[in-house]
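Re: folding output
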Amino acid sequence: MIGRVRSGRQRAVVAVAAVGVVLAALGELSSRAQAAGSNPGFGLCEAAHGIERTATARAAVATAGAPSLINATQRTAGDPAVTAPATSAPSLPALQLPDAVATILDVGRHDFVRTSILLRAKSSAPADVTATMGTSAVTPAGQAPLPDVGDYLAVMKDTLRRKERTGFIPPDDYVAIARVAGPTAVALDICVDRNRPHGINAGTYTGIVTIGDRRVSALDVPVTIRVQQRSWFLTIFFTALFVLLGGTVFVYASGHGGESGSAGVTSLFERNGLREIWQWTQGNIVPVCAGIATASVAFVANAWNDPAWGWNAPTQWYTLLGVTFAAYTAALSAGSAKFASKGDQRAQLNTNQTEQSTSPQVTAGTVPASPNGRAGGPATTKVSGRQPDGA
């Protein structure tokens, strides 16, 4: 009866696990199908998209009304040989790129990212104007100041192309806004929603966003967007299942830390093989926990912390399985072998103590009992040869 109850519980657990896996797979497929479909909205970037349209319109009006900077030369009405000093118009303010790391946007495991890239204006001190008799000396003046704080600058977006495989993010699928954030700074805000309007697959996308406003010098800003795979449930589930079950059976069958040796392989196919493996696992619970910790560290280092992991899912997953499996089995083999050696020492010590306590005490002048049950008596000495008379 107990065996039937246990088998019924095991069937229930397996059924629940199977239903969970099926539901997770269906949810994953539906989310990918929904993300792959066309959607005119920008999702979490909708507000930024509205600001982008407003900024583009304002920048176009401001650029059209900006006066052209023309060098003016003044001549005196008197002697043509004497010319008043001329001054060139201020040059357009120039922006400089930040560090390359600042232009990398990590979407990672999330569906949305909005990052501001800060662009500083190059410093330029105004130059003095010198006058010379009979000649015209023109010295360039300093840079003109940036537009007013809060003004938007015209931006031109490039298609972001994936480095690993064929794929791209069109200009209409992400938002880029350039706004004057201070007297010497411009903030370039970039917003990416991986689900809308088209699904963005995992990978590293690179491209250029150009600030092409007539009020500042043109500047090309390289942009890198790194996107991780969409869901981790199936990856974590199957990796843990393969590593825990396969790694434990491998270490048990290979005879590391146990006394079964090659008999471990045979016991897997016997009636009580799984029960023996379970008992062995319970006896080595500390090495199992150490193996899980080591495999978790390998998983985080090789997949979880990679912001573009998942662009080549089958190959990367096989590599991840190999790394985590090797880490788990190495830790479990070393720990179980250590535990087994200590267990053998304790067993040998207990055996020696038992033998000493049960062995008969032999005193001088007596002999231990013979196997036929006779008690030992005084020790006698057998003399070979003929005995003397009267003996």
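--- second protein (sequence, then structure) ---
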Amino acid sequence: MRKFFLVMILSFSVSFAVNQGRLLNLNFATYAINSYSNNWQSPLSWSVTLADSLRAAVYQSITAMNILYGYGTNPTAVSFDYYVNSGVRLVNFLSQDAQNYNFVFYHGHGAPNEITLWNPNAVLSNVTSGNGVRNTYWLWLSACSVFRNGYSNQDPWFDGVFTGVHSILGLSSVGFGNLYVMKAYQNFAYRWFMQNEKIWDAYYTAVMNILHTQGGYDIEPKIVYRYGYINGIFFDPWEEKFRNSYLGPVFYNNDYDGIGSRWITLGTPTY
């Protein structure tokens, strides 16, 4: 694992509060694979670059948010962990540190219901067991077809490694790695953290405007989630905004009303 910190070091303590507000200590982790052990999967040239640029965009967006919205005396602090190539192993998704990554991003190869890990034939799937409820609130699986419509089962993701997660961003189609993807992912960070857009709106709009419209790539972005009531208030996670988010894991005690997903088909994607 390679690690660096910005603004302040987080204190890793598990909290299961479900108050709403702006997260004051954001721990953001990325996992990216360019090359796999023994070439068990084909090499990727953009994974690490995408993860690096996303972390930079998150930092810039959080910094701008703190300044422009007058949070100087009570800012959102952000720290980053990152894993590349041989660091992308199951153990690094299950570690004590990983239990407290609030936002997790992965880029590598995928298939319906699973993402690939660095070591030969290793995957993290929707039924991989975790270590109980964790403080990961948002997950982004930037990999081909993990949530392919008609071929995937999204509900087990919320009871496995990422128990308690609010929502998961991903793809129903084949994805890409290029300059337009990098710009789209940076734009998502700006929209969600700085502009305070709904998480799904920030994601699909960034992908649609930059990757599809500007780059000409056909793709099917998707978000999956459980929904229900928290403290008597209906919570539909696709609408969650960073500055008014639930500050704890949700829907991990069979206390949800249903399973939801949204997607948009841009052009004629490959599946």
